[in-house]
Design brief:
The structure holds two protein chains of two kinds. Chain A is of the alpha+beta class. Chain A has eight helices and 23 strands. In chain A, helix 2 packs across helix 3, helix 2 packs parallel to helix 4 and helix 4 packs parallel to helix 5. Classes of the chains: A alpha+beta, B mainly alpha.
Chain lengths: 360, 287
């Protein structure tokens, strides 16, 4: 399985885990290259945190193996694994200063005092917290606590860094800043990183690759662009980004929605006529007030989103959402076409390898 | 708003304590006049105060032996109760099995058994014809010591009575430490014993101090356990006090002994207050 040029930093090989009589992770296969940041993305209960805890050693897989740099670590206790975890609530020890928190692992390894001091100072400089070296965790802000937790993990120079929804307790603005910090630090030191989140925005903006999980299985494992443009399953398409879904028939003159409207499509994942479910991103719904050849639509609602405008449309009885330019003049009726659509049958993407084809 | 409780404390606790202190210092008038009418071997002054009663009590070798017995049993009980509470509390915190749940339920059972019944049970268990001795005899250990009516039996009884409270206290303290803090320590490379030492222990100083001080004060003032399971002499101060008060009809000496026990309890109470003040100072830094 391992790529000869970039050996897997981490390999999750057919891992399963049952908890309380329920299968949480089922036959999971995932390969993370060295230096890569991979997000495990999915809704609550999809098994992403359980997977992370198995990598960290806090849970034992029932079946399968976890390998880091080729060696099986599945049966090692957490303290013997070359991994370091950043916990959701930071888990800083409240009775220790920032210095003591960060240096704890180094002191356990009985390094010389001068070296401990130097490494702690270096890592605190990396996360920009040198001025808080003697503060207690409760005296610093949530974002700073998060960076201390990151420093505490990084100072041990682990082979794999594990982040368990580390931004979920931060406010929206801080979250964006800290996630950029994390990405920047991760790239600078080139550490293999697994990042668990249920926030698709976070996953799309941080990751080299994203594993979308559902019901204990990986639905799709791909880079953010592929995931967004070619979601392999209906679940991925609906979980990552906004998507309009319609069942209907693909024919020579466009896609006929169940409500009867005939919508022309410029580009499709497959051109074979037949019954499908079509997924169309709101930004791929093209509207025009004077155009011809599009399906007729009436505007139900306009929602200002700042740098774009969201239109809620009624297309022959089907609701459709479209993202348009914010300065588009308000009208009651307009015509729509799909600039791009992806087709699903039984929830699975129907894709042809040739370049997408226009259907009018 | 605070006046009613202060008044209740003043009338029902402050006034009797004040009267008792005056009596031990030789003042037999006022509220002490009735008891002084009947008591023997009193040291009375009509002007100023006298420490004659204290000198007599502390000069009595039997009382001194009782005092040392009290200190010994108290210290042993504190140490064993703290260790047992920590051990059981830790086991319950770190293990979630059926056995641990059974242990958890068993450990608080002594709370629901009256002390007098428990004391008799302990006595018969360790008596010269008791279960332990019989068992030792059958196993061929004929010289096994009889523990009934010894200070060891008293210590065992005190431990038995105090462990449930200790376990409840330690469990609640240990359970308030989030799992993530323990896992973070393991993740940093700490073994379980090191995690206990570096995370659980420093985060549970206050429950430990509460268990130690409350146990200490309970044992200092206990009567039933030493009276039923202990030797005639030396025994704990509680038993001695009762003897001096009723059997010997020397209430002044009994109250002097109560003052001595009170001073010991104040010493323990000071540790408790000091630990709490220190913790609240720390809390203002850490939260």
């Amino acid at each position: 399985m391992t790529d000869a040029q970039t050996p897997a930093g981490l390999l999750i090989d057919r891992v399963s885990k049952d908890l309380g009589g329920r299968t949480i992770v089922s036959d999971m296969q995932l390969e993370v290259h060295a230096g890569e940041l991979t997000c495990l993305l999915g809704p609550s209960g999809c098994g992403k945190t359980t997977t992370l805890r198995m990598i960290g050693g806090f849970l034992q897989p029932d079946a399968g193996a976890i390998l880091i740099d080729g060696s099986d670590i599945s049966r090692l206790p957490p303290e013997k694994r070359p991994t370091a975890m950043v916990f959701q609530n930071y888990a800083l020890w409240p009775h220790m200063t920032v210095f003591k928190n960060v240096s704890f692992g180094l002191r356990l390894r009985k390094l010389p005092k001068a070296e401990i001091r130097e490494r702690v100072e270096n890592v605190l400089e990396l996360v920009g917290l040198t001025h808080h070296i003697h503060s207690y965790p409760a005296r610093i802000s949530g974002g700073e606590q998060q960076r201390v937790a990151l420093a505490r993990a990084l100072v041990l120079e682990p082979k794999v860094l594990l982040l368990d929804e580390p931004l979920s307790n931060l406010d929206a603005k801080l979250r964006v800043r800290v996630r950029e910090d994390i990405r920047e630090i991760q790239q600078r030191i080139g550490i293999t990183t697994i990042f668990v989140t249920h926030d698709q925005d976070e996953a799309l903006s941080l990751s080299d690759r994203i594993a979308v999980m559902s019901g204990g299985r990986v639905e799709q494992y791909a880079d953010p662009r592929t995931l967004y443009r070619h979601p392999a399953t209906h679940f991925v398409a609906s979980f990552v980004g906004a998507m309009n879904f319609y069942t209907g028939t693909l024919g020579g003159d466009g896609f006929r929605l169940a409500g009867g409207a005939q919508v022309p499509v410029d580009s499709l994942s497959s051109r074979t006529p037949g019954e499908y479910e079509i997924g169309v991103r709101p930004e791929d719904v093209t509207v025009s007030s004077n155009g011809d050849g599009g399906a007729e639509a009436s505007v139900v609602r306009e929602i200002q989103r700042g740098h774009y405008k969201e239109l809620v449309l009624d297309v022959g009885g089907d609701e459709m959402r479209a993202f348009v330019a914010p300065d588009l003049p308000a009208v009651d009726r307009l015509r729509v076409r799909f600039s791009r659509g992806v087709l699903y049958r039984d929830g699975v993407l129907q894709e042809q390898s040739e370049s997408p084809v226009a259907v009018r | 708003m605070v006046l009613p409780p202060v008044a209740v404390v003043a009338v029902f606790i402050g006034f009797p304590v004040g009267a008792a202190i005056a009596y031990t210092l030789g003042r037999a008038g006022g509220p002490n006049s009735t008891v002084a009418l009947l008591a023997q071997r009193q040291h009375i002054v009509h002007h100023g105060v006298t420490t004659a009663a204290y000198r007599e009590v502390l000069g009595n070798p039997h009382v001194r032996a009782d005092l040392w017995a009290t200190v010994w049993v108290t210290l042993v009980t504190i140490v064993v109760v703290v260790l047992l509470s920590w051990a059981i509390g830790l086991y319950l915190r770190l293990s979630d099995t059926r056995i641990s749940r059974i242990v958890s339920a068993l450990s608080v059972i002594p709370l629901f058994i009256p002390v007098v019944i428990a004391s008799y049970a302990i006595l018969t268990f360790y008596a010269s014809q008791g279960f332990i001795k019989t068992l030792a005899y059958h196993l061929g250990w004929h010289s096994f010591p009889t523990l009934g009516y010894t200070l060891t039996a008293v210590a065992i009884g005190e431990i038995w009575v105090n462990v449930p409270f200790g376990v409840l206290m330690m469990s609640s303290g240990l359970n308030s430490v989030p799992n993530a803090l323990i896992e973070a320590a393991r993740d940093s490379g700490a073994s379980l014993p090191r995690t206990v030492r570096s995370v659980l222990l420093p985060m549970n100083v206050i429950p430990t101090v509460i268990v130690a001080t409350f146990t200490g004060i309970y044992v200092l003032g206990s009567f039933t356990v030493p009276y039923l399971t202990g030797p005639s002499a030396p025994n704990l101060m509680g038993v001695s006090m009762a003897n001096f008060f009723s059997a010997f009809n020397q209430p002044q000496q009994a109250e002097v002994m109560a003052m001595i026990v009170f001073v010991l309890a104040v010493g323990i109470g000071t540790i408790y207050v000091w630990a709490n003040v220190r913790a609240s100072k720390r809390a203002s830094i850490t939260s």
